[in-house]
Write a structure and sequence with these properties.
Bound molecules: pyridoxal-5'-phosphate
Number of helices: 10
CATH architecture: Alpha-Beta Barrel
Helix content: 40-55%
Radius of gyration: 18 Å
Structural class: alpha/beta
Number of strands: 8
Strand content: 15-25%
Distance between the termini: 30 Å
Number of domains: 1
Largest sheet: 8 strands, parallel
Length: about 250
């Protein structure tokens, strides 16, 4: 990894970029600590996951060298193309984007967790491949809390039924819920969705469904992670506030 880093360090423009990522990293950590404290938690109670779509591996590895413990990719193909180069000795990789059933076999065993499980069909495929590979896959159930047509995720009304169905599957471990709320123009609106999600999370936790461990509530991104933590999130997924605005090369 030092070799990869020094290669990056040779280039002055990249050096500046890395300095910015470093400043952002520690600023986000501070903000997380403050928000956590405001609800009687500490920074250690909150998982800071970096959303790494479009970010070059050198920069991802640099952020890992600062102490980042979790990264999340959106697309199977991008994840696989970077997989060999990530420095994952002290960092875990999650899949946070929509997953097609036919791509499950390519990533089971390679990611620590799949956060975006939104249907029984997908869970069944993850279970099947996990059994074949003789391993257990950790998942979160994605909830479409705003009920938006354009978004994937199970609805708040169907999540419980889905959990009961998934709990019966082999080699799969549900560890919580994930959500991407609608884009909101103000804080009141975002709190409405986060609070609804937190209620759902607490409600389901209290039912103590067999095989379901409600450990993680994954919500909050660059624009609203502090609000999410105040509403009960214990995992936030942050991209642009850490790495800067995304540059889509192929779009
Ligand atoms: C891109 C992405 C994020 C992070 O978004 P930012 O606004 O850049 O922080 C979080 N979660 C998911 C599922 C994403 O795709």
């Amino acid at each position: 990894m030092t070799e990869k880093l020094s290669k990056v360090n040779n280039i002055e423009a990249d050096n500046e970029k890395l300095e910015q990522v470093k400043r952002n990293f520690f600023e986000i950590q501070e903000n997380i600590a403050k928000s956590a404290q405001s609800v009687g938690k500490t920074a250690d109670d909150i998982i800071f996951l970096a959303a790494t779509k479009t970010v070059p591996v050198e920069i991802i590895n640099y952020s890992i060298s600062l102490g980042l413990k979790y990264i999340g990719e959106n697309k199977v193909q991008e994840f696989l193309s970077k997989y060999e180069q990530y420095n994952l000795d002290n960092c875990k990789a999650h899949l946070i984007g929509h997953l097609q059933t036919n791509k499950v076999k390519q990533i089971v065993g390679k990611v620590d967790m799949i956060q975006s499980v939104d249907s029984l069909k997908l869970a069944q495929e993850i279970s099947k491949i996990s059994v074949q590979k003789n391993l257990t896959t950790k998942i979160l159930i994605e909830v479409n809390i705003g009920g938006e047509e354009s978004k994937s995720g199970t609805t708040p009304e169907t999540v419980e039924e889905l959990l009961y169905q998934v709990s019966a599957l082999d080699n799969i471990k549900v560890e919580g819920l994930m959500t991407i709320p609608p884009i909101c123009s103000n804080n009141n609106e975002i709190y409405k969705y986060f609070d609804k999600m937190n209620k759902l999370f607490i409600d389901i936790s209290s039912k103590k469904i067999d095989n379901i461990n409600m450990c993680y509530l994954s919500m909050g991104m660059s624009n609203d992670y502090q609000e999410a933590i105040k509403s009960g999130a214990n995992m936030v997924r942050i991209g642009s506030s850490l790495y800067g605005a995304r540059q889509y090369i192929n779009k």
